[in-house]
Model the fold of this input.
Amino acid sequence: MPNEIIRVDGSRLPYPPGNGRHYTLEEMKKAIGGGLIEIVHTKDGRLMVIDEEGKLKGFPVNQVATALYRYGDQDPIVGDALVSEDRNID
Done:
């Protein structure tokens, strides 16, 4: 799936941009449950939007998103994540 939300329970939901081209900031925040967004790269060449303060907020580890993100011994991804083709995020 090119554009999807990966929930902490492992479920994956399609999440295309509302206008068909680019996500708005509000759409990205809604996908991850609010908060400050942080954008990281995935192993498969997509971008992942996460809550920058998720660890401080005590969000649970997102195993599926972490596996898609992880390069070596980097920190795990916590909370819900939006994964998207880079052309959909400005």
Q: What stands out?
A: The chain has two helices and five strands.
